[in-house]
# Entry
Amino acid sequence: MINQVFIRVDGNLELGAGHLIRCLGLAHMLKTEFHVHFFCLNVPAEIAEEINKEFVLNKISSEKAFLSVITGK
# Structure
């Protein structure tokens, strides 16, 4: 069974897109051993498209929504 990795990251093109890109690079390194899921409040359309090519992108409305998904509560 392949394990899952959850990456919680936000960013935009003006500030913080570098962090998104680095997380995408990490996801590429992990993809042979893990199912990678991204959780984002804000993500530029161009980067969302790139994420969706190989990974699961979950757009969330709040931190509480993210915690609910990963804990099942």
Remarks:
- The beta strands are 3-8, 34-40, 56-59.
- The first strand starts at residue 3 and ends at 8.
